[in-house]
Design a protein that fits this description.
Helix content is 57%, strand content 9%. The chain is mainly alpha-helical. α1 crosses α6 and α3 packs antiparallel against α4. It is elongated and about 75 Å long. The two termini are 23 Å apart.
Length: 158
């Protein structure tokens, strides 16, 4: 190798550039990442809203009437499903992506457990996906090669 030759771009950096240019999409297994023991799990956003709904419903049932408790429980379930759960899913996705893209070690750990997937649609319309049984580094290199050229460097790399 010649001293003038630039070093090859690490696969994780290539993947970040592909993600930024939207040539590649990262998928996250939300249910598994939003479980205790996950590096991105937050008890507060999962336990406290449900505890407040159930406590309010039980208190209303005991203090007033069964129907009042049922109405509070129904409204609380609607609030959880319509308002809270989408925010939790978005938060888990964002935190998972950020954690996975911090280092090769983090990405490899999540990839080996099957918690991440990669998807690419090439300009000619062909679609490719990679799951844990595939090598993500080879997939990123293949997408880069198939797309015709390496993605433009980002501001940080320039």
């Amino acid at each position: 190798m010649n001293d003038d030759d630039p070093e090859p771009t690490p696969p994780l950096e290539l993947m970040k550039r592909l993600l930024d240019s939207q040539r590649l999409k990262l998928g996250v297994h939300i249910r598994k990442m939003n479980s205790p023991g996950s590096p991105v799990y937050r008890y507060g956003e999962n336990v406290w809203p449900v505890a407040v709904i159930l406590t309010s419903s039980f208190a209303a049932t005991v203090l007033t009437h069964y129907y009042v408790g049922g109405v509070i429980l129904a409204i609380g379930c609607w609030w959880w499903l319509a308002r809270v759960q989408p925010k939790v899913k978005d938060g888990v996705f964002d935190r998972s992506c950020a954690w996975a893209l911090q280092s090769d070690t983090h990405f490899d750990a999540l990839w080996a457990k099957g918690l991440l997937t990669l998807f690419a649609e090439l300009p000619d319309g062909r679609k490719f996906a990679a799951t844990r049984r595939d090598d993500w580094r080879s997939f990123v290199r293949m997408v880069t090669a198939e797309a015709g050229s390496a993605p433009a460097p980002t501001k940080e790399a320039a």
